[in-house]
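Q: Could you fold this chain for me?
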Amino acid sequence: MATALNYRSNQLSKGRADGSGKAAAIWRLSGQRSAKPSPQEGEKKRREEHQFAVQTAAAVKEELPAPTADPLPPPTSRPLPPEPPTMCRQWDLLPPSFTRKGPRALLLQIHTFGSPRQNKSPTRILQKAGNAIFRPGERPVFIDDVTDQHTCGYRACAATVALSYGRTNEEMAGVKECLTYAPDSPVGDRRSPPLSPRGSDRPPGAQGFDGTPGDEVPCGQWRQKRAENCNICLGELTPSTKHQVLIDVNDFNHRHVIKPYNGQQRWDARHVKMPNSHFSTYKKSSVLSGDRARVRWDAIEKRLTELAKGSPSVMNVESAIKAYNPQYKDQWNFEALYTYFDRLPKEQDVFSCVIAKMADLALKLPRYVTTAIPLLQQGVGCAITLSQMQIACLLANAFYCTFPHRNNSKPGTEYCNYPTINFSSLFADRAPTTTEKLRAIFHYFKTVTDEDTKPRGLVTFERCFIQDRKLPPWTTQTMTFTKLHATSEGTIEKDGRGMLQVDFACNMVGGGVLGHGLVQEEILFLIHPELIVARLFTEKLNDNECLKITGVQQYSLYSGYSRNFEWVGPYQDNTSRDEWKRLHRQIVAIDALNLKRTEDQYTERNIKRELNKAYCGFVDTHNANTLPAIATGNWGCGAFHGESKLKALIQMMAAAAAGRDMVFFTFGDRKLEKDLMKLHQNLTEQKSTVAKIYETLKSYCLIKRGHDPQLDLFKFLDVPSSSL
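A: Sure. Below is the predicted structure, expressed as structure tokens.
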């Protein structure tokens, strides 16, 4: 176990035994201490430190952004009694450009809380505290000093300093990993202003997401990498054999104009078969000519033009769709649309207006999509970039069920390995929640058909495939675990903004979004309807594949889950965009094993499968050094019968192998939140490697399936579960 640095604060008795009555802050280092230097060595060291301090101050002021003070504690019912200030050390690595200029250094923030009647500024406190705050060899260089923020008669102060410490990466990592608070530390004490409203909930010694011992940062304000802060350089948008771009890249790169690329349509097994192709036909019977093949787009164009010019009702929509899908005339029903009308009579006028605009949008398909759309097939890594309005046009055609050969997904049919895309299955769903699904979908179409609110960006869909021989050999992975922040508050889509957001997917992406399903993936697709278009071209995912979507927009707010899901209202998405006009939102669809029995997951084969699937979703070879954190949660649990603790550990291992930090949302499970933080603290303190934990999991599975089915994973790893 690495040497632990414990902070203790002992307040002298009110009798002022030392005559001062002030708190004495003492740093205690358990383990071996370095020998005391000679006077000559000390003088030489002081001169070197002074020179380094001057250089550090100039470098840090030039390269570091101005720090901001931590959130102030909430007001209380009565003022707190005067007492000596508490202090908290917060660590962050300096940028690489700074650390290359000289000795390795750390950035430290000192937070103090004290009475305004006393001079409790960080500068004065640090001057008086001296060696009580800093370890031998640490030289403070002040960068910023934030004071005079009053709360309930107390003043919150913060100072940012740079500390020189250590000469090697191992020494630097040791300082960050070994810093822990003793149980009697005043930090988080209810008598003094807490660092956050929930600061006392974290167990002593637990690390925050930024590595800060005992620090608890309010939900959504963690110090983790987000896409907009990673400074990823994309360069010009360029098509290739592995990247199909459906817009004109010359106009986009040089004039910043989004125009469709004029290419050729194809009717083959490797491309989407489009409704406007002259190869798309249907048979229509007549008395004079009998059964004769007719071009399907002619009938679609005729029927949708009638809808676009009038004030259509549900009956008109049903009649139009069945006209060019005559073989399903007696099979399809539209009860969900009629129910939507009955339950929401006030939206009938809006419905008619939006339906007409949707029909007009669908008719623009020959102008909006003028080149073939490749299918993202199994075993091939490929990407598609298209505009948001091209997506809207494709989805309008899906609503009107115009895509040929996509109405039958029975085994042996042409598209049996693809999700459904035409909305006929949604129209027939009689579930009460279908009305809420339709409200989200109609709001999306209302937004994209309005000239003032229609989106003007791009979206990329990328199928990632890793050959089996290139997957990590988990028994030899020597990397340690990356940062973790577990929280029972917040959601992936809201508080995971700018991170890689995990879609707990079905192998047929979108799951039951156009059917009965309404859990995490389906909700994700409803509030980001542009995701639905992935069902048009994404084949069923294999064990070594995932789908990454970059740039989709959120259009709706919601509440509830599953049967309690409700569409709340519109959402104004102000997320920034990258160089390719894609929103800084990336979602990865990874499908967990759909287990028939919970005990089936406790085999080496299934654990390895989940590790490979998560790694495939988390790894990014394009920008390996500038990756945002992962926002995930109870992947593969619930309907798929996965155990939350095992799936969390698997994702932590995959994130470590991919070199990414992680934020884990437990969705209200406070016990799991605390257990995960304890687990992570234990693994990092022991410097456990991924390979070691993999071997431990193999042993755990043997015992779990054989001798002790009730064995708890965290207890097996010597991490006692927290009490309820």
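A (continued): The chain has a mean pLDDT of 76.
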